Amino acid sequence: MNRRESLRTLVMGTFASGILLNSCVTDKESPIEEGGIIEEIEGYGRTPEEADRDARLYSETFFSEEEMKTLSVLSNIIIPGDDESVSATEAEVPDFLEFIVKDIPSHQLPLRGGLMWLNRESNNRYGSDFDECAKEEQLLLVDDIANPNQFGGNFSQGTLFFNRIKNLVVTGYFTSKPGIEYIGYLGNQPNVWDGVPEHVLEKHGLAYDEKTLAVSLKSEERNEIMKWDN
User: Fold this and answer.
1) From CA 221, how far away is CA 217, in angstroms rounded?
2) Under 8 Å CB-to-CB from 39, ≥6 apart: which residues?
3) Fewest 10 Å CB contacts: which of 7, 87, 187, 209?
4) CA angle 79–161–139, rounded 5-degree value
């Protein structure tokens, strides 16, 4: 099983028990006034207060341009594009990361500190920042922090950072439109009512009469309004 399929399996299990990440933390120190600039978007699914908060977060910038470049490289290493779906950057995962660190500020210090550690380690090894290294060098470094038990070495800080960024990238990807399409998640779908199961009817000594079966339980006519005779 390749990396993408492993992540897909992980996410499908996660959808059954809840999403990987809880966001939209209430900002108690900065209450949002009623009304807002996003509330007019039809179907946005936010209260006016939530929409205003989102608008404010989108208007702010946390990561520098250089940090965003590094996050883009890491995102594509974690979820590269293939014949079945797009890469993490094509799914706009770096933009998700920029938003989520403002939505959940507890991510800010670990991610910024992790990026600094990554560039320092990259410079010590290869003489350049991580995003400027050759692809092979980037993958070697990521292998060390992603699989410390397999490759040895003391990379505890790098491993903590990678585990966090991996979880965020996976969350951002599989909650994006292409990510949801890739795993085939359909959400709640209407089903077809074909009556009370026969074993339940038998338990209670009941049964459908032939007219009901012939007229009322036709799934192909389920969208038609029933017309009862006298």
Assistant:
1) 8
2) 46, 47, 48, 51, 52
3) 187
4) 45
